Amino acid sequence: MGNIDPLQKINGDFKGKDILSLTQFSPKDIEKLFNVTWKMKHLASDNRPSLILQGKIASLLFYEPSSRTFGSFSSAMMRLGGSTIAIQNPQAVSSVAKGETLEDTIKTFENYCDVIIIRSSNVGDSTKAAKAAFFVPIINAGDGTGEHPTQALLDLFTIYEKFGSLNNLTGLLAGDMLNGRTVHSLIKGLSLYKNNTLYLLSPMNLKLKKDDLENFRKSGIKIIEITSEKEIPKTCHFWYWTRVQKERFTSLSEYEKVKHSFVLTPKLLEQFGNQKMVVMHPLPRVGEIKEAVDSDPRALYLTSQMKNGVFVRMALLALVLGKI
């Protein structure tokens, strides 16, 4: 908020902090969040009414389309007794259409609420929002090709829930590594832990930027880039499939060439998977996972992974708003 460093470390105290990047977190911070998430999961699963956030209001400013992030943040506030000012496509339905700047929009809505959750197509917009806000914390719900920290937190929780640890893991990330903000945040999250190895499967023109790859490796995580399904190790704990992001392409023909470079099918899962692994996807999918995979008990993307989005965001909102 305001003059405070928007990327300040959590250091065990979430209250009033902007949540913009996984770089703000330590393993202890994530452990604290997960401990609250368990409580929220039990509360929500029992459909118990809660007044933890009674009187609190969240503004959801989503400049990009969203189903799960928008819906789960809304659900999280309501399950805890709070309310929302929910605006999808501010470009069309708010004063943004008249030319209002991002900064002025933020300064306006902070007068009406206790926390602002923002999604944008531009890298760095969440940081701009945090610098503009004087009174309320900002939560990054995805900024262009940058980061999606709350998605990574729910993904980490899903993996932790299955394996009981975030150390000593082997994972496959498949799809768009260049533009995928979900994979950028997930790699940062797993970099906080020990002895993790990630295989990145992507088309040649959608590989991680060289600088990003080098920085991730310097952080201590082992990254191996592969270009064929035949290189997938059979020892993975999780597969994290992602779509090729049409909205990041300037040429439709270039998108069409690569959109289905890697498609997850039951046959592929049988060939290179194992019985203890899980399959995840941040969604939406656009053909890169066949519907026949949905019924596999290892597929979590339409079940627990999605549900965990509500529980993690309930916990995060309660902590950031200082109610836990």
Individual helix count: 11
Order of helices and strands: HEHEHHEHEHEHEHEEHHEH
**What is the CATH architecture descriptor of the largest domain?**
3-Layer(aba) Sandwich
Number of strands: 9
Unreliable segments (pLDDT under 50, ≥5 consecutive)?
Answer: none
Question: Order of strands across the biggest sheet?
Answer: 7-6-5-8-9
Q: Which percent band covers the strand fraction?
A: 5-15%
Helix content: 25-40%
Number of domains: 2
Short note summarizing the structure:
This protein is α/β, with parallel strands linked by helices and 324 residues long. It has 11 helices and 9 strands.
Describe the structure.
Strand 3 (115-120), helix 5 and strand 4 form a beta-alpha-beta unit. The longest helix is centred in the first third of the chain and has 19 residues, at 27-45. The protein starts with 26 loop residues before the first helix and ends with a helix. It folds into 2 domains: 22-147 and 307-320, Rossmann fold (3-Layer(aba) Sandwich), CATH 3.40.50; 149-305, 3-Layer(aba) Sandwich (Rossmann fold), CATH 3.40.50.1370. It contains 11 helices and 9 strands. With 324 residues, it is of the alpha/beta class. It has a 5-stranded parallel beta sheet with strand order 7-6-5-8-9, with helices on one face. Helices cover 36% and strands 14% of the residues. Helix 2 packs across helix 11 (304-320), helix 4 (102-109) crosses helix 5 and helix 6 (149-163) packs across helix 11 (304-320).
